[in-house]
């Protein structure tokens, strides 16, 4: 009524407990009646053609019921909502049957849920990936939607987004990475770490979904040569911030040494506390202290080994904890640096 004055003599009635069956071979929207705010519409799509289904921005497999919460919508405030489906026969999926589609959609659901499981949050919306001839930035970029080049939708491309066999075996580092960007929090991402903390999520999904162990993942193994150079040169934090491949190793060391449960507990602590951290130094100190307290070990020597700047107050506050015995090819290259 607010948006459409004088269109109605009286407020329209709201339909409840109504079932409708709609059959169509066309790509179109269907109105299913007026809905008040904060109600739920349940949709059970059924299809005969072998194509990807779109339902209000959701990928929906045939025969699976979903519930859509009707919230306040622009242009329809307080009295209606447009609920329907849009079905397209897309060239990129015509060779897939419904079982294959279900399998790959479940894979991507698992990736998104793994990211949230690591961070300690629940999904509030679906991730969207749009293939474009000309992304606004780089090969891919994060956001809503995530935007990629067209090769991701090409069934003959190595990066085809619906290739279940390839995805389950090798994952998709680039897309795991972009979804990870959508998970980042400012209070544990400091200057120089934007392209680093995102890959905690990439590594976790690769490990838990695709079963690539953290330390031997091919992407990480490709960074070993530069990491050796970094350590041999004496380790400089400014250089660390310039090379995300080198920088990721300390987070991989934490995952390898203390497991993903420790990361989960730390991230959940952040979600609970939501600390107000103004400077990069505060963010670094808070991460080191929070992780140390979680695993009950003093991690200052590990971060010093990579030349992290650490406040004296943080060093002093963790002095009551035991230093862990960590041994790997990087610490063994310069064992004298692994100390308080």
Task: List its traits.
340 residues; mainly alpha; Neutral Protease, domain 2; three-stranded mixed sheet; globular
Characterise the protein shown here:
This protein is mainly alpha-helical. It folds into two domains: 83-183, no CATH class; 192-339, Neutral Protease, domain 2, CATH 1.10.390. Helices cover 38% and strands 7% of the residues. It is built from eleven helices and eight strands. It has helices at residues 98-119, 164-170, 173-181, 194-208, 218-221, 224-232, 237-242, 244-273, 280-295, 300-305, 312-317, and strands at 39-43, 53-55, 58-59, 66-70, 86-87, 129-131, 140-141, 146-148. The strands form three sheets. Strands 3-2-5 form a three-stranded antiparallel beta sheet, with no helix packed on it. A three-stranded mixed beta sheet has the order 6-8-7, with helices on one face. Helix 1 (98-119) crosses helix 4 (194-208), helix 6 packs across helix 8 (244-273) and helix 8 (244-273) packs across helix 9 (280-295). The radius of gyration is 25 Å and the shape is globular. The model is unreliable at 1-8, 47-61 and 70-89 (pLDDT under 50).
């Amino acid at each position: 009524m607010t948006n459409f004055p004088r269109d109605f003599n009286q407020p329209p009635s709201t339909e409840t407990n109504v079932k409708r069956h709609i059959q169509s071979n066309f790509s179109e929207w269907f109105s299913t009646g007026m809905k008040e705010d904060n109600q739920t519409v349940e949709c059970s799509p059924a299809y005969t053609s072998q194509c990807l289904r779109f339902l209000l921005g959701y990928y929906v497999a045939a025969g699976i019921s979903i519930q859509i919460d009707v919230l306040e919508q622009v242009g329809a405030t307080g009295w209606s909502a447009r609920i329907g489906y849009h079905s397209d026969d897309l060239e990129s999926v015509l060779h897939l049957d419904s079982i294959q589609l279900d399998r790959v959609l479940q894979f991507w659901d698992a990736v998104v849920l793994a990211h949230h499981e690591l961070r300690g949050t629940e999904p509030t919306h679906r991730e969207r990936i749009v293939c474009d001839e000309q992304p606004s930035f780089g090969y891919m970029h994060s956001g809503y939607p995530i935007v990629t080049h067209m090769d991701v939708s090409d069934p003959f491309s190595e990066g085809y987004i619906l290739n279940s066999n390839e995805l389950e075996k090798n994952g998709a580092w680039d897309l795991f990475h972009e979804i990870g960007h959508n998970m980042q929090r400012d209070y544990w991402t400091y200057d120089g770490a934007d392209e680093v903390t995102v890959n905690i999520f990439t590594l976790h999904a690769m490990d838990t979904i695709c079963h690539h162990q953290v330390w031997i993942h091919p992407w990480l193994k490709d960074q070993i040569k530069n990491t050796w150079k970094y350590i041999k040169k004496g380790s400089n934090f400014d250089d660390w911030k310039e090379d995300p491949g080198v920088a990721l190793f300390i987070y991989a060391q934490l995952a390898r040494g203390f497991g993903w449960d420790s990361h989960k507990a730390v991230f959940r602590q952040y979600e609970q506390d939501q600390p107000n951290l103004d400077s990069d130094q505060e963010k670094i100190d808070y991460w080191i202290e929070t992780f140390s307290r979680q695993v009950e070990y003093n991690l200052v020597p590990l971060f010093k080994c990579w030349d992290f700047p650490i406040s004296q107050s943080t060093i002093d506050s963790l002095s009551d904890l035991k230093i862990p015995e960590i041994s790997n090819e990087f610490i063994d290259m310069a064992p004298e640096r692994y100390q308080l």
